[in-house]
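Researcher: Let's try something more involved. This one mixes different molecule types, so please make sure each is placed in the same coordinate frame as the others.
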Amino acid sequence: MDRTATPVAPSRGALRPLGLDEVQITGGFWAQRQAVNATASLGHIEHWMEREGWIGNFDAAAAGTSAGRRAGREFSDSEVYKLLEAMAWEVGRTDDEVLDARFRAIVGRVGAAQEPDGYLNTNFGRPGQRPRYSDLEWGHELYCYGHLFQAAVARARTRPDADDGLLGIALRAADHVVETFGPGGVASVCGHPEVEPALVELGRTTARRYVEQAALFVERRGTGTLADVGLGRAYYQDDVPVRDATVLRGHAVRANYLAAGAVDVAVETADEGLLAALTTQWENTVARRTYVTGGQGSQHEGESFGEDFVLPADRAYSETCAGVGSVMFSWRLLLAQGLPRYADLIERTLYNVVATSPSHEGTAYYYTNTLHQRVPGTVPPADAPSPRASSSLRAPWFAVSCCPPNVARTLASLAAYVATTDDDGLQLHQYAPARIRTRLADGRRVELDVETDYPREGVVRATVVSAEDRPWTLTLRVPAWARGATLRTPDAAQPAPPGTVSVRRRFAAGDVVELHLPMHPRISHPDPRIDAVRGCVAVERGPEVLCLESVDLAGHADVSGVRLDVGAGLREVDGRVLATLRTTAPADVAWPYGSAHPEQPVTRTDVPLTAYHDWANRGPSTMRVWLPVA
Amino acid sequence: MDRTATPVAPSRGALRPLGLDEVQITGGFWAQRQAVNATASLGHIEHWMEREGWIGNFDAAAAGTSAGRRAGREFSDSEVYKLLEAMAWEVGRTDDEVLDARFRAIVGRVGAAQEPDGYLNTNFGRPGQRPRYSDLEWGHELYCYGHLFQAAVARARTRPDADDGLLGIALRAADHVVETFGPGGVASVCGHPEVEPALVELGRTTARRYVEQAALFVERRGTGTLADVGLGRAYYQDDVPVRDATVLRGHAVRANYLAAGAVDVAVETADEGLLAALTTQWENTVARRTYVTGGQGSQHEGESFGEDFVLPADRAYSETCAGVGSVMFSWRLLLAQGLPRYADLIERTLYNVVATSPSHEGTAYYYTNTLHQRVPGTVPPADAPSPRASSSLRAPWFAVSCCPPNVARTLASLAAYVATTDDDGLQLHQYAPARIRTRLADGRRVELDVETDYPREGVVRATVVSAEDRPWTLTLRVPAWARGATLRTPDAAQPAPPGTVSVRRRFAAGDVVELHLPMHPRISHPDPRIDAVRGCVAVERGPEVLCLESVDLAGHADVSGVRLDVGAGLREVDGRVLATLRTTAPADVAWPYGSAHPEQPVTRTDVPLTAYHDWANRGPSTMRVWLPVA
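Model: All components are placed in one shared frame. Result:
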């Protein structure tokens, strides 16, 4: 049983993940966000969950007073579990004993609501509530277990000797699930996938039977065991068996969670056919259904993927949690196959979806992440939940508030995605100042310190800390966008084309390997089949997608009349990217279709672009990622 | 009390509508559709409403057996009323006695379900059902009354002496509404506007108090009397008072029905401020939130208007019923103000939304009307309702099946929109072969026959039938697109610029006035703020928007790689418009954003374009209205 302190610990695969005890992010972009997460977000989330009664639901269930008075949506238990998972990783990361006590207090309240047979859900099965499992389509009971299991796994792997009882709660619930939905039981699945990856992980940490239950759920999915309730069975991926599907579809969070769990099952059962199907799904989804930000799920209706190349900027849904799900899916494929393309997408999604959601203060969030804001967002209420997909600035809370704890658990465990090992060495996937102390399977010590100001600068310096008599291989990812990168080793400098670059040697303490990534801003053109952004380009710099915000325009003019002068090039001044814009004043007409609309350039100005993840931190503005070309 | 056999009969305004006894469509495009409507659609609709139990709901309500077994959605009563309205117009149009008997039979079943106090709805208030008016947001009770009233008005105006009892049913229900929601009663509105225009019309035909009730509903709207239930109060226009709003927003059908009723109220109460507000709403909606087809409501979520210029082609919702509602709104403004722009939009919407919905056979419908079909539609089931917004070919029925009877009532009453009179003459708004026999207010006879092959040809020939000693004025609309039109009178030929052109004379029997409209295909460019179709053009011919269907491409290639060679011009051959296309073969790439994608033209071919309303009548295909420019 693997108890590496990491969210995903496969028993086989190309790469082995490292635990939070083996790798820490020590500074820079992500350490700053981890600090905000620890000092502001976790408390903010706990406060709102108390205030909204989502934690109190467990007290009421334990006291038998739930009937007719339960707070929140049907899946609110899961938000509490996501918070527990985030707290567990954070305690594992920092040994924060105050946080540990808060964690234990919530676990106690959760555990009190568990029924003798292991069932645990505050929304079903008690007097005045609907019967257990009477609404698999929308009830989210198994989905909630999934997040419970992930919380328990996080705790078991970071504090294996903790006496808080969370693992026991999870195992009793998991046994109940196997009892109820196992062979001969209810032959169906949950409307919201999530229990699948969670059961595998629980199985990896405890007992194989949970993996088998996950495999059963994956095999059942797509066979139409759920009713067609309005949005169609594709909404919850019950339209096509997982191994027959060629692309992600339907609800984007559901699709990614299911895909992640199916990779887990494929890996644990050595099911190469299933893994190949998921690889194809990933490839097609990335090539045809993903925003330049890495965001997935373009449609508001059903929070879902559109058809291929339906990627509107101005109604981009790009749910934050779909970004988290996409990282989960890609990470599992990376561990299984070792290909850098997965880490490329993870990096893109982390910088441009996961980092975009929370405000700088860590106490307000985007649930959706549009790529084009046409009207200045409104300031959401500070003291009430906001609609999840409203066109507002980041909001402190939502009636459906999965993004805050989902971002929190991702940030708290982020170090786990920095590096891996294999039999012969270590692979760096994400670039951040980091401390890495691990051993390869044969006992060779691999100890590195990484220094970098990435993504502000493109130099990544890895210094070997300990001497080891035997050679090993250090591999660094060169992002697909990084044309012209170079690697400097103690011996030489060499070109580092996109993909990976490796150095194998008998490293001595103090040896330095430096990757130089080209960080000049670059212009990206969309596939011509993405009709929504025809005639536009995006500006990117390193892993960051940039955008134009109206607060940077003279007179805070809105962004509808801007045209990028591509010929004028992009410049960097004082760490900001400047673009030359020609601004036109669109004429109002009674009917917007007719003879060609001549555009009179009114002004020509240099305007700074902003990292997309930073937008809307300076008050209401209009914004666009895709800039029409002059 | 006005009993002109027409859907809208204001007591004042710039223009006076004609009744179905005064104007008939005698041939051509619309007569053919009226015939299909009469011979196929009405029976098809009645069959499905019986089959689905929507008419049977009234039997069950009368028998007291509704509890727990009612069929259909909460608004299905209204569909039966829309069918009754369509039948009433059709009986008025053609004196079809067999249809009249079917009409009477349904009226009898409806009437049996009415309660002693006038309440009539099969979904509320009986044992096992929720209480009356306990769900104004979603219950649709007043909405259903609205369609009941419109059916009763249609009957009262076409068969004023009928003894079927429908008017009595409507008046009892209307009295109950006034009793319940009048001054001192429930101070709220219905989540779905519709009762407002219906009450005004019922008032115009019977008693003023119904107009006053409509005025009360219009004034209450926008004051937040409805709960904010998820989609926001803009969804049902309860966000801003009608007289303060500047543009239509929210659910597009609701928005148009409310606007129509508000115009009615403004006209009957001589409320110029309210009328001015609605005029502004119309102008802004047309300039910024309307598709080139006239379609309105661009968003699937909430079937709603988007922000200004959010008009995606590939996810155009453009609900058929929103088109019907837009015609209702525009027609009322036309009667009030006489401006040709309203008839322009009506024409555009009739040809490109209302005519698009039904199949050639009149037994299948589009509920939504996309402007870009990316994957070939599937053939919907013949024996089961389809999802309303599915990407299929036209479907025989939907669980929400408002479009079939809404189109039917529009087609059956279509002659009413052809012409109007004022104190000095007659105005032709829509061009179809027609027989017009009316008198002006002072008794002057105006009798015209219109001959035309419009829109196939651009010549509209109006022949005066009867001699009259006194002069009068014949006014013809020149559509905004018709640059270079000419008018030929008995005396001369003259240019006819867009707007209206008038001839005032002492017409003699046999006098001919001919309008020559230029019908060459033309290229329309979108306002540059409509980001979704940047770099594309649409091709129009007369009032028809054209499209490219893949069934017309070699090998039925899909339409994603086509580029229009604008320089090559458009040609007409054998009545079809030919465009020169360069077809490219888009290359599949792993990541769809990067360096410019060079497009290699693979073929250059002349391809026929199809009238948009005709598309998808030749089996599954991909389609696009907006053609990227080469």
